[in-house]
Write a structure and sequence with these properties.
- This protein has a 3-stranded antiparallel sheet, with no helix packed on it.
- It contains 3 helices and 5 strands; from the N terminus they run E-E-E-H-E-E-H-H.
- The protein is rod-shaped, with a radius of gyration of 25 Å.
- The protein has helices at 28-36, 62-70, 87-106, and strands at residues 3-4, 9-11, 14-16, 39-40, 59-60.
- It has 107 residues and is of the alpha+beta class.
- The chain has a domain at 3-70.
Amino acid sequence: MPVLTRVSVSRDGDPGHGDLNEDGFVDGLDLGILLGEWGPVPGGPFGPGVNSDFNLDGFVDGLDLGILLGAWDPPVRLGAASAVPEPTTATLLLTCCVLPAVARRRR
C-alpha cells in the first residue's frame, strides 16, 4: 500500500517525490511528464512505464497533479534581471539622471 505524505510518495520502499525526471527538482519538466501520461494507466496501477500515478489508483489525474504541486520545488535561476548592480552602476545612474536635473534647475 502506498504511503502518502505532503511531499513524498513511497511505493514499496522506492521513494517518489514528484521528481519524475530525477534532476533533483520538482518543476515544469516534471509537470510536462505528468501531463504526457495523463489518463488511465495501461495495465492498472502497477502498469509498466507510467511513473506519474503517485497514488496508485490506476489513473494519472488531478489527485496526482495535486501531489506533484504539493512537492513543487523549482530551481532558483538567477538571471540578469535579478542580479544586484555594482556600485559603479549606481554612480553612473546618479550622474546621468541627477546632474542634468540640477543643471536645468540652475538656469
